[in-house]
UniProtKB/TrEMBL annotation:
Domain (Alcohol dehydrogenase iron-type/glycerol dehydrogenase GldA) ranges: 12-155
Domain Fe-containing alcohol dehydrogenase-like C-terminal residues, every copy: 167-346
Top-level EC class as recorded in UniProt: oxidoreductase
EC number: 1.3.1.32
InterPro entries the record matches: ADH_Fe/GldA, ADH_Fe_C, Alcohol_dehydrogenase_Fe, MAR
Keywords associated with the record: NAD, Oxidoreductase
A molecular function GO annotation: maleylacetate reductase activity
Protein name, entry field: Maleylacetate reductase
Family annotation (CDD domains): MAR
Amino acid sequence: PVAPVTVHETLPSRVLVGPGARHRIPGEIERLGARRVLLVATGSARAAAGELAGALGPRLAARFDGAVVHTPVAVTGEAMEVVGETSADAVVAIGGGSAVGLAKALSVRTGMPQVAVPTTYAGSEVTPVLGETENGVKTTRRDPAITPGTVVYDPELTLTMPAGLTLTSSLNALAHAVEALWAPDATALSDALATEAADGILTVLPHVLADLSALRGRGRLQESAWLAGLCLARTRTGLHHQLAHVLGGMFDLPHAELHALLLAHVMAFNLPWAPKAAARLERIAGGDPVEVVGRLAGGHDGPTTLGALGVPRDALRAVAERVVDRPYPNPRPPETEALTRLLYSAW
Ligand code: NAD
């Protein structure tokens, strides 16, 4: 058979990486020609947002600190009112995926350019994807115009991440890389990004967990999360992300914790069917990747099972059925019995 032709499309974006990169944000705003900046932040990024507000001076139009997880349309509506009142012409997001999601939602509605300054490893800042919730229903859209045009990675902004978030958010990033390795539309480029991302995370994470103030290690984790986000932007996700979407949607679960606890179970399920991904991950992990990831995932004080997250055990079969009904592309075709068993082990 003739190998299919792959098409690479690179989204235009400008990425600044390194300690202190946040001090360049005012210059980036100037570069965009913006005069009235709306600053959106999550509570955790209050200090960084305050610092930036000072640096922006009169170019700061307003601050909106109300970003919350899963981009509820109602919250976006409140922020849109602020945009209207202040005639903001650019939006800067500082915080986790929640702040970045809100900036994307505002940009889609207004065409405002975005500067994303992530403080977790979720990776949303480099993807053309926006998930929004309304009346408990999450809808996702994909459009190159959604991708923030400027991204600023400053590892100093990640030093405040507690151990639990550092671990779960890193495994969230690792999940993007792992699924890219077995994606049906993987390319040489996505393989390279995923391999480097997984290597960075598995190599450095134990050191950062032992010393949360290790700036160089934090920098490597953040760079790995960037590459993992690029994987998410480039390839179709499979069973892991589908389970996270279905479970997260049905039971309103915390994003990073859910990804972290599912990953090893999905790897155990899929890797025998994805020999190339298995070989790469085994090389990177220096042993059985399922065991290595499973051990990491169990190493924090937060919930590490679906049961601990409050998911009722008798709902798991329905979750499996939902997945089997319209499966995302996956190396191992999901089937209700096997999937229910996977969910029981994660429970
Ligand atoms: P989040 O933004 O909700 O942050 C999680 C928690 O960590 C919050 O309480 C936050 O205040 C805190 N926090 C963030 N940065 C911190 C720091 N540096 N120090 C201390 N605390 C900090 O969660 P997240 O996991 O970053 O992102 C999840 C959201 O992003 C979800 O809405 C998810 O759907 C979305 N997401 C979207 C994409 C995409 O491509 N569209 C990709 C990944 C995630």
